[in-house]
């Protein structure tokens, strides 16, 4: 069935995939807020939320309901359009990242081969970087539109932090791209999956540590959560926000966490690859399901790592943050890039 | 400078060593500590279902005692009110009428006995002042209330239930631990 020279079934297929992935991301983000509280509690010898439903499992629904029921306040002095645009932008940018992540190998349904990736574009990782940078606008616009000095300070901090750390992140990434020779996430994952190939973490241990630290800074997670520093900035860039607009900001942070975990798993930990298992010997549908579970497991491990770090170490001071970014991470990333290049040249003889 | 005590410790101003400047080893060490807390026992008591046991010397809500035959001990002498540093206790005395011997132990009794729980500091001086063993601090505490008036406890709140007639209510009013 081709009309207008378009494969309509492909469109439908992609739309369904988009819906599934977006809702799954939101659902996982919902429960990430819950597990964040649970992990925090367990690390601090507390039981954590346990009243709503069995083991507190309905807590995120109660939290969401509470946020929706709250009064929607737009301050008089705020610029209204931008004030609403801020959280919308943060959320959109966070969700857009999922478009290029290969969630698994392809499944065969109704005689069609369906890729479990919304778009396998050949500049996948560049797209991720572009979209993640857009997320900074959410913070900037929200902080600016609030017309509040604390929000503005927080937005400034967020923007400068994101810009500084994106640099080191990009440099750490270049080393991976030099090994893989491709910007497509699918190709990068396939290369790590090939029999006899190792995951990129083996070749790029330093690069991964740099990338991980920068990813934490990009997500505004604790050691780098200066834009949300409660004790200096009251609450940060979302201080004037209430109700679901605040919820969007908080939610976007968790979606960002999930997406950066997925990107890290794809770049350094073989994506949907199961170690010591040759997926090509399995039926394609089973391999795809195992792949999704494998990627989800890796994401969950990364999320736990994010939370574990958050509840262990305190926040950086602003000058320490900038020193770390510009004087340590960027030189290290450059050295890592040069070393990788040298080894590749040496191997090519 | 002469130290006042010998306990002062000099702060180390040495520059950080290379390992310390790496940060990561120490962060890993800290993460190991937090991880070990996953396996520690939680001291949490799930309050409305579980309750923490008070120590036997806990000074909680007051009870007005009865004697072995279920008669009220209080004679409204007013010594507790005099002893009370917070002036939380007020009372009115009345004379025992013929036929009320099974209710009150002596010829005089408290017709009205009020303690303002918002004033009370739970010091236990009333308990010490009482010559008739009539007032005791139990091992329970005053529950929350919506009004200030609700915290003025009258005789119907304070008087302990008869041990012989209602043993369960009696035990609840005293608190658990002493039995």
Structure write-up:
The complex is a heterodimer of chains A (349) and B (179). By secondary structure, chain A is mainly alpha-helical. Chain A has one domain. In chain A, 67% of the residues lie in helices and 4% in strands. Chain A has a two-stranded antiparallel ribbon with strand order 1-2. In chain A, strands 3-4 form a two-stranded antiparallel ribbon. Chain A starts with a strand and ends with a helix. With 179 residues, chain B is α+β, with helices and mostly antiparallel strands. The mean pLDDT of chain B is 85. The chains are: A mainly alpha (349), B alpha+beta (179).
Question: Biggest interface: chains and residue counts?
Answer: A-B, 12 and 15 residues
Q: Which class of the domain at 62-174 in chain B in CATH terms?
A: Alpha Beta
Task: Identify low-pLDDT runs of chain B.
Answer: none
Task: Give the helix proportion of chain A (percent range).
Answer: 55-70%
Order of helices and strands of chain A: EEHHHEEHHHHHHHHH
- Coarse shape of chain A: globular
> Which sequence of SSEs, written as H and E, runs from N to C of chain B?
HHEHEEHEEHH
- Spatial strand sequence of the major β-sheet of chain B: 2-3-5
CATH architecture of the domain at 62-174 in chain B: 2-Layer Sandwich
Strand-residue proportion of chain A: under 5%
Counted by DSSP, the helix tally of chain B is 6
Report the count of strand segments of chain A: 4
The biggest sheet of chain A, with number of strands, parallel, antiparallel or mixed sense and barrel status, is:
2 strands, antiparallel
Taking the alpha carbons of the first and last residues of chain B, their distance comes to 61 Å
Average pLDDT of chain A: 85
Helix content of chain B: 10-25%
User: What is the assembly state of the chains in this entry?
Assistant: heterodimer
Instruction: Sketch the major β-sheet of chain B.
Output: 3 strands, antiparallel
**Mean pLDDT, all residues of chain B:** 85
Rg of chain A computed from alpha carbons, rounded to a whole number of angstroms: 21 Å
Number of strands of chain B: 5
């Amino acid at each position: 069935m081709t009309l207008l020279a378009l494969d309509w079934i492909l469109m439908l297929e992609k739309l369904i995939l988009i819906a599934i992935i977006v809702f799954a991301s939101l659902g996982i983000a919902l429960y990430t807020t819950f597990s964040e509280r649970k992990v925090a509690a367990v690390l601090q010898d507390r039981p954590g939320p346990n009243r709503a439903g069995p083991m507190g499992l309905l807590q995120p629904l109660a939290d969401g309901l509470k946020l929706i029921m709250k009064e929607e306040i737009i301050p008089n002095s705020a610029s209204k359009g931008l004030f609403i645009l801020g959280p919308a932008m943060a959320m959109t940018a966070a969700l857009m990242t999922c478009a290029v992540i290969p969630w698994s190998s392809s499944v065969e349904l109704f005689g069609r081969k369906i890729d479990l990736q919304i778009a396998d574009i050949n500049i996948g990782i560049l797209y991720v970087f572009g979209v993640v940078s857009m997320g900074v606008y959410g913070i900037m616009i929200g902080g600016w539109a609030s017309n509040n000095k604390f929000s503005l300070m927080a937005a400034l901090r967020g923007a400068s932090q994101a810009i500084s750390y994106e640099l080191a992140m990009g440099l750490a990434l270049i080393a991976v791209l030099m090994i893989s020779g491709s910007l497509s996430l699918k190709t990068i994952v396939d290369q790590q999956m090939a029999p006899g190939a190792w995951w990129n973490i083996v070749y790029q241990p330093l690069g991964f540590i740099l990338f991980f630290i920068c990813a934490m800074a990009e997500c505004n997670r604790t050691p780098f959560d200066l834009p949300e520093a409660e004790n200096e900035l009251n609450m940060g860039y979302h201080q004037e926000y209430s109700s679901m607009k605040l919820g969007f900001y908080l939610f976007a942070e968790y979606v960002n966490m999930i997406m950066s975990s997925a990107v890290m798993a794809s770049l350094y930990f073989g994506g949907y690859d199961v170690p010591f298992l040759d997926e090509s010997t399995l039926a394609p549908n089973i391999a795809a399901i195992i792949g999704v579970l494998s990627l989800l497991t890796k994401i969950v491990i990364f999320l736990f790592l994010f939370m574990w770090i958050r509840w262990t170490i305190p926040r950086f001071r602003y000058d320490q943050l900038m020193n770390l970014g510009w004087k340590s991470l960027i030189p290290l990333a450059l050295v890592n890039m040069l070393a990788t290049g040298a080894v590749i040249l040496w191997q090519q003889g | 400078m002469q130290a006042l005590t010998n306990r002062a410790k000099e702060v180390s101003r040495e520059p950080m060593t290379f390992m310390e400047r790496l940060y990561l080893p120490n962060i890993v060490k800290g993460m190991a500590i937090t991880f070990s807390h996953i396996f520690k026992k939680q001291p949490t008591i799930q309050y409305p279902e579980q309750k923490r046991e008070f120590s036997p010397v806990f000074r909680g809500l007051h009870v007005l005692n009865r004697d072995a035959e279920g008669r009220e001990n209080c004679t409204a002498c007013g010594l507790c009110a005099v002893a009370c540093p917070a002036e939380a206790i007020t009372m009115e005395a009345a004379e025992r009428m013929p036929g009320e011997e099974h209710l009150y132990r002596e010829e005089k009794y408290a017709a009205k006995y009020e303690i303002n729980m918002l004033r009370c500091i739970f010091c236990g001086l009333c308990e010490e002042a009482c010559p008739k063993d009539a007032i005791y601090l139990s091992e329970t505490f005053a529950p929350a209330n919506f009004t200030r008036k609700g915290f003025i406890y009258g005789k119907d709140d304070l008087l302990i239930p008869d041990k012989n007639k209602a043993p369960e209510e009696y035990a609840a009013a005293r608190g658990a631990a002493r039995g």
